[in-house]
Amino acid sequence: EAGVVQSPRYKIIEKKQPVAFWCNPISGHNTLYWYLQNLGQGPELLIRYENEEAVDDSQLPKDRFSAERLKGVDSTLKIQPAELGDSAVYLCASSSSYNEQFFGPGTRLTVL
Amino acid sequence: RKEVEQDPGPFNVPEGATVAFNCTYSNSASQSFFWYRQDCRKEPKLLMSVYSSGNEDGRFTAQLNRASQYISLLIRDSKLSDSATYLCVVNAGAGSYQLTFGKGTKLSVIP
User: At a CB cut-off of 8 Å and minimum separation 6, what does B33 contact?
Assistant: First the structure.
């Protein structure tokens, strides 16, 4: 069974530039999450989707971050404009229950 | 007080040693508890769920103390391959999909 797929794996951009990350969850998983992980920290939730509906986006900095999951399958997370402090690993996860979340390999973003 | 607190370590232990990690959580409504493992520059993966009665999976034993809001993970007969960061994870309440992760405890098993 294919796992959670994310792309790109690495991205280096200059500050003030836009960037987008893509995630394809495990087939059949209705719940999709975007997390941010800084070095030495645990993952922090940015947004959670149930199918195409964002049910928890309270931690998403909406002035510069946006996300969508138009058909309830794959999802895109965008930052515009990027700031130096956005450098981190962006993890996508999916689940079919509240018991286990399956993570993708992440996108490592460096903002110069 | 942080929602999930862990000693970041690092714990440096010799092969074959027994090591224990502890974690405390602040949300008394939490109902589901987990230990995730994260290898260096990799994604977190579920190691085991933690049940009220305690549970064991091979060399790994997890315990939950709801009264003290405390979770533990015991690793016996440590292997080099156990070297990783162990994340304590709790949910927001009954049936909640929202998970809160601790910062993790780094374990290095040395030959």
Answer: B25, B49, B50, B62, B64, B71, B88, B89, B90, B91
Can you tell me the distance from the alpha carbon of B74 to that of A37, in angstroms, rounded to the nearest whole number?
Answer: 25
pLDDT digits (tens, 9 = 90+) for B33-91: 999 999 999 999 999 999 888 899 999 999 999 999 999 999 999 999 999 999 999 99
**Contact at CB, B98 and A42, closer than 8 angstroms:** no
C-alpha dihedral, B22 to B1 to B102 to A37, nearest 10°: -160
Q: What is the pLDDT of residue A99?
A: 77
- Supply the pLDDT for residue A30: 93
Residue among A98, A99, A104 whose CB faces B43 most closely: A104
Q: Which two tokens stand for residue B15?
A: 């092969």
Residue A94: predicted pLDDT: 96
**Residue carrying the six token digits 């996860």:** A93
Strand order of the β-sheet with B55-57 is: B4-6, B19-25, B70-75, B60-65, B55-57
Interface A:B, Cβ pairs < 8 A: 43
